[in-house]
Design brief:
By secondary structure, the chain is mainly beta. It is built from five helices and 20 strands. The N and C termini lie far apart (47 Å). Pfam families: FKBP_C.
Length: 349
């Protein structure tokens, strides 16, 4: 959990870090920029659901308590409490009229939100989406676009001054007295989307609870080999995952003949990892098994120790374990572009 520290400085005198604006969100500022307006009186949002919204500012947005509004009603599946929905969203600053955070671009994965179940934020990203979570209600439909206006100090609340939180919001150019606008689209239920494929003989059976994987059943499963094995249980229809990308997934992991999983994300709100390349954040078996898989797929991996944790134990995972994972690949994003090299000394540029 975040520690609670002293309040950070206010916007008029804060020293804030600048960030590049996303090209995927169109922002325009109208006359009366200096006038402070309340909630959705300060802004008009347009554009099709599922694409980056167009935002027309009528003035500066007052930093106030959260106000949520359904901007466009969807006609998709109605949501029930406990459903996990994939959300694309953008955060725009009502003081600077700039984009602070945007999942519609190609370098940021979307987020998973559990409907009707608010929890205390345990990470900066959960804090960032806290007001979106509150605004998504059971009975709303997929395809709905929701707007939220809120003051930055109200959003950050008790975590104002926490070093991690302060650095994150400073890094995206959010001051403590800024009015913020969130625009969120309810895209789809979190889960594989594609054609079911026949499971191979080496694959354990997936035991489900409430429609999602809860364990692996190894009854009748042959002894694993020392090779990586990959099976597409559902072949997605999205773009293939490329080396170096960040992916949004749900997963469950269990050792060969293990009685229960050693880890899973299906009861949470997903997991983001970088696969392939020097920046990979997962074991080699994930990178080698998931690069090339289409987004929307459900994949079963058999990972030998040499591509997992080797001869070192990891928590509930014994040394030299063969790891089995079921992974739902829900989204993928390109790495951030490398900064341009500084001009050589003495160059004419």
């Amino acid at each position: 959990m975040f520690a609670r520290l002293r309040p950070a400085m206010k916007r008029p005198s804060a020293l804030l870090l600048g960030v590049a604006l996303s090209a995927s969100l169109t922002l325009t500022a109208c006359g009366g920029d200096d006038e402070q307006l309340s909630g959705f009186d300060a802004v008009t949002v347009s554009g099709p659901v599922g694409s980056a919204p167009e935002v027309d500012w009528k003035g500066r947005l007052k930093p106030e308590k959260a106000k949520a509004k359904v901007l466009e009603e969807g006609d998709g599946t109605p949501l029930a409490k406990g459903d996990v929905v994939r959300v694309e969203f953008t955060l725009a600053n009502g003081w600077t009229h700039q984009v602070n955070y945007d999942t519609y671009d190609e370098t940021t994965v979307s987020k998973l939100v559990r409907v009707g179940e608010e929890v205390e934020p345990m990470s900066v990203e959960e804090l960032l989406t806290a007001e979106i979570v509150k605004a998504i209600k059971p009975g709303q439909h997929l395809g709905t676009r929701i707007g939220v206006t809120v003051g930055s100090e109200e959003l950050i609340g008790d975590y104002l001054g926490n070093t991690q939180v302060s650095e994150f919001f400073a890094g995206i150019d959010v001051g403590n007295e800024d009015g913020l606008l969130f625009v969120a689209d309810l895209v789809e239920l979190a889960g594989p989307q594609g054609q079911a494929e026949k499971a191979p003989a080496w694959a354990p059976k997936i035991v489900e609870k409430d429609g999602v994987p809860a364990a692996l059943d190894f009854k009748g499963v042959p002894k694993p080999t020392d090779k990586l094995r990959t099976a597409l249980l559902i072949k997605g229809t999205g773009p293939v995952v490329e080396s170096g990308q960040s992916i949004l997934v749900n997963y469950l992991g269990q050792v060969y003949k293990g009685k229960k999983p050693f880890d899973e994300s299906y009861t949470g709100t997903g997991f983001v990892a970088t696969v392939g390349g020097e920046a990979a954040t997962v074991v080699k078996g994930w990178s080698e098994g998931l690069v090339g898989v289409p987004v929307g797929s459900r994949v079963l991996l058999q990972i030998p120790p040499k591509l997992g944790y080797g001869n070192e134990a990891q928590g509930d995972i014994p040394a030299n374990s063969t790891l089995y994972f079921v992974v739902d690949v829900l989204d993928a994003a390109d790495p951030e572009p490398a900064p341009a090299p500084a001009p050589a000394e003495g160059s004419s540029e």
